[in-house]
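tool_call: predict_structure(chain=1)
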Amino acid sequence: MYDARRVSIGLPAGEIFVEYPGGDGSEPDVAWQCTFADVAARDADRAARAASAEFESARVQMRTLYARFERQVFAIASL
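tool_result:
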């Protein structure tokens, strides 16, 4: 659902990952990831989502469907 809503407001879909069979049970059932060129691009993405009533409506509905939510932000390390 999120991917279609993101794309409909001009944002990249990102990637959805599902649990791999044979895990130890500590991994999440589903994970979503999106890569941004820089902080400004991530901020623009957040602003576009906040400005979309349709996206906000979907977000409210999604909050009723999960037991735990974690947001983690990473930067790519230069080697």
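agent: The chain has one domain: 2-62. Proceeding to next step.
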